[in-house]
Prior knowledge:
Elements: H1 3-12, E1 22-28, E2 34-40, E3 45-49, H2 60-68, E4 72-76, H3 93-106, E5 112-116, H4 119-131, E6 136-138
Parallel strand pairs: 3-4, 3-5, 5-6
Antiparallel strand pairs: 1-2, 2-4
Amino acid sequence: MQRRTLLASLAAAGLFAPAARAERGVIATRDGYKLAYLDRGSGRPVVLVHGWSLSSAIWSLQTDWLASRGLRVVAYDRRGHGDSDRPSDGYDMDMLASDLAAVLEQLDLHDVTLVGHSLGAGEDARYLPRTGGRRVSRA
Length: 139
């Protein structure tokens, strides 16, 4: 089923309403690279971290649905993926966890629910002990 048809079907069933607020932007990392992000909705923040070789576009149905449920949803493109900068190095877990920290800090997110898919779950797991879990309420 095409995305437009699926969203129309969900809206007709009362299961989906488009989010009022959607913003695309760029976060600067400590080492000067740019990470593209999508920020939708308002309310308690949910941060979606995609798997290797994907981009934040993988979360499009989830961002729409979660934002329609009164949550603020942030999904970003990991360095080297999607619309983010493509460095030749810097792909270790510590650097990727630092990139996640930059997203949370620069968007001033608190009481965050972290959701990771595949490598994204590894980034979440590396981020939590490095920061003591501040800003995050659950993962």
